[in-house]
Protein 1
Amino acid sequence: MGETAAEKAATAKRDRVFLVVVDDSAERDVALRYACLRARNGGGRVALLRVLEPVGMIEWAGVGVLMAEERREEAEKLLSGLGAQVQEITGSLPIVEIREGEPRDQLLALLEEDPRISILVLASSTGSGPGPLISALTGRYASRVRVPMTIVPGGLDDRELERVT
Amino acid sequence: MQVYLPIAEMSVDAFLLMGIGFGVGWLSGLFGVGGGFLLTPLLILIGIPSPVAVASGANQTLGASVSGLIAQWRRGNVDAKMGGVLLAGGFLGSFAGVQLFALLRRIGQVDLAVSLFYVVVLGTVGALMVMESARAILRRRGAVRRKLHEHTWAHGLPLKMRFRKSRLYISIIPPALVGFGIGVLSAVMGVGGGFMLVPAMIYLLGMPTSVVIGTSLFQVVFVAANVTLLQAVQLGTVDILLTLLLLVGGVAGAQFGAAMGTKLKGEETRALLGLLVLGVALSLLWGLLRPPGNLFSAGPAL
């Protein structure tokens, strides 16, 4: 076949997937924008993971079911909105994953199960400490992460993001 | 270890009280409920006079609900405006309920009335819970979808108000009425009323489920506080020693319950709770139907 190293690199670049965890923090948008810009400039796709909080025990089963349903609908609405943003920047729709449980555990499980994901993009909090996910994945759970991680400073503005991507 | 309860005017085993507090606290930690609807009838069953049992139940509910409310408030799951309307109704309702309670006490029918309330309410609630869980366990649930923004006669009522967090634009009359009803029940039965308030908010008012738990706790905390205060001031029926012993058990139980809550299987536990509620209702019913030990007792004439 005689594929050159440059051609190989080009296909690999197109196939890579940047995973962004969609939580309710302010840094989420920075991580998402960074991932989109990297995907646009260097090739690749964006994947979004939204982890729902489990409903827990409610005395009425019907209420619990309704609650789980509404949370899922809300997550779908949020992800389709973000998906439109991703498409605007990268030109393709993101891979979307909705799971239920503890965010950290679900993220690690997804990384183990889905071999397409190549880079995990997280943004650090602008307050004190980098945020719970980053602390966990760089600390106690560091050995369980199977992909490289990119930590984007949460305080970067759009121009700075353009520059570093 | 027997202790004398000054207000209830009787001696009971302190460990029995702590055990009841623990059991009810465990359930309230598990389900995130106040637990008054189990505590009050259990106290009545071990022979505590109804007025004291009701006042102590309200007090216990208050303690269990405050920490829940704080957690929900921090996460922004409380619709304070809706809570305020419910609460206005709730205050009126609990005031009316305590007056009703005082009247029943004057004519000497308070034990009968409280037991009847419990038999009817717990019987209905328990039966519904068991049926619901049985259906879910048997996997015969039809996909019943709720229509959002269904227009009913309730939308024609005046005094409309916008509730931003609940995404509703409705008259304040239905929520105030719901609050009033729960307030009356709270005063007469010594419950917070969350287990009836939550379905009422969803199915009657059409609130989104995300704010329902927090907002119901908001109403429950203030109404239970009001009931405890009114019962203490007007009727003098809050037994400090009794509530203290119950709280000691309750706090420990709630910790265990909250820790176990995430590990248990939902449907089976719910079915058990339903059976427990039904069991309490049946034993109260038996207490009403059973021929009394002494057939005649002297009391004030009506």
Protein 2
Amino acid sequence: MKAAIVVFPGSNRENDAADALERASGKRPALVWHKDTELPSKLDLILLPGGFSYGDYLRCGAMAARSPIMREVIARADKGTAVVGVCNGFQILCEAGLLPGVLLSNAGLKFICRDVHLKVANSQTMFTNRYSNGEVIRFPVAHHDGNYFADADTLKRIEDGDQVAFRYCTPEGETVAAGNPNGSIANIAGVFNATKTVMGLMPHPENATDPATAGPLGGSLDGKPMFDAIVDALAK
Amino acid sequence: MKAKIHVTLKNGVLDVQGKAVAAGLASLGFAGIGDVRVGRFVEIELSAKDRASAEASVKQMCEKLLANTVIENYRIEIAE
């Protein structure tokens, strides 16, 4: 599998994402700087990492979504190359129009940095097929603008098209307000595009893959099945 | 020529900043505070030939970058 991670000024989780991909695939992904106008050839996966690209100027993800490399990312995504956006990467994919909806400020106006529980909403994709539908998993979140919003028509299209990837839930798996950290509509934590080749999510699966933080330290390893699934689907 | 652009959240989109500002104003003792909406104001100097072409290009700027029309409205004023 050939993967690339796009680095914007203000990205800060690119190495965590690279570590997670390397753990799953045995191969270090290429890091591509945002000013580059070309991506490596024959890429199987493009990952947009977490961070605060361009200081969240104007709107989170807005500036990065219009940077030169994104034209290339959009072109590759249109041709079916798999794209994953985590946290700020999710915001960028929404701003770039590769995913529906948008991320608003958290309903509580606070930056949230803790583990959250997620319910797998669609396990029939190349990103999620190592989970089962309704399974409850735990990833960390670290964001200020993670409040997913889509208008009524868009929301209906997303739900009807099985485009919801994960929903925030309580540890018991209830998708109710008590399990929703940021006010996201319908508890949505992550979505796919219509063809399920692009996925964005606010929580950090890459930060739930390192055995060094798990065990007695309490970290989750629930992100591992996601990276294993991606490597499986794209291994050549 | 100068373009003045107001970007505001659409009705129905939760404005958490506006809500916090409303609560802040109320706690300062200001009475009669209704809904508060916080927006963005952008001023752009332009070397456009005429008003119509200035307006047309600023509209493009709003659609492509300055506003996210999923959640935001924009209003353009052109000043000589």
